[in-house]
Each structure stands twice: as C-alpha cells, then as structure tokens.
Design brief:
The structure is a single chain. By secondary structure, this protein is mainly alpha-helical. Helix content is about 85%, strand content about 0%. It is built from five helices and no strands. It is elongated.
Length: about 150
C-alpha cells in the first residue's frame, strides 16, 4: 500500500480535477453541468476533509502529542473552505457567473495554499510519525470515504 502522503495527495488531485471541470462548465454558462459538478466536487472534498479530521489528524496528534500545530491550522482552513463552498453553491443556484467565478478564484487560492502545506509539511510528518500504522490508517480512510 502507498504512503499516507501519496494516498492523500492523490485525493487532492482528484478533487482538483473535479474543481477544474466545474469551473469550466460555469465559465461557459453550463449551469446544470456546473451545479452537478460542484456537488461532486464538494462531496469529494468533504470526504477528504473527513478522512483527515476523523482519522489522520487524531492519529497524528496521538502519536506526536502535537495538537496545537499543523492539524489545528488545517482544521481552521477546512472551515474557511466550507464557508466558500456554501457561498459558491448559492451563487450557482442563482446562476451568478461573476460571483461564482470570483469565489472560485478565492477557493482556488485557499486550496492551493492549503494543499501545499499538507503535501510539503503535514503529510511527510505523518508518514514518519505513523509509519507503523500506515495500512490501518489508509484502510480506515478508504472505509470512511466509501461510507462503510
């Protein structure tokens, strides 16, 4: 099985692909496709957040004793992104391209900065601190994502 960092980075790429498809549909006025795509993107991203918040972060905090560091920052950023998700969903519902695409730019910046911190800092730390639990943790994250 892959490293924790590889598994979660692959999840980032999947969410990024869904985001790009949705933004493209909205930019050309394909609102039915954009709303459907945004729903898929949001569900995938929320599932990713849950894998981190319910499995990875608690395991990391338990293994390292660090609870006020990177995981706290990541949770705060998840909350920020969730707020933008709600605003984007409302803009899509109204078919307000200017607002939707403006929020999309904001979200893209938030995601890029967030993912960089996770991929360059937190995930490598997790690989090291949780090496002995890797398969169990990835299995738990996969089970959570599949709704098992």
């Amino acid at each position: 099985m892959s490293r924790i960092s590889q598994y979660l980075t692959d999840e980032h790429h999947h969410c990024d692909d869904l985001f790009a498809q949705t933004e493209e549909a909205a930019s050309r006025g394909g609102w039915a496709e954009a709303k459907d795509g945004f729903g898929r993107f949001r569900r995938s991203t929320e599932a990713h957040f849950e894998m981190e918040e319910k499995v990875l972060f608690p395991a990391f905090e338990n293994a390292t004793g660090i609870s006020l560091g990177p995981t706290q920052v990541m949770r705060m950023e998840h909350r920020q992104m969730r707020e933008v998700f709600s605003q984007m969903a409302a803009a899509a519902q109204r078919q307000d391209a200017d607002e939707y695409l403006g929020l999309s730019e904001t979200l893209l910046m938030l995601m890029q900065q967030h993912n960089l911190k996770e991929e360059q800092i937190l995930y490598p730390m997790a690989d090291q601190a949780l090496a002995g639990q890797r398969e169990t943790l990835i299995g738990s994250m996969q089970a959570l994502a599949s709704g098992a």
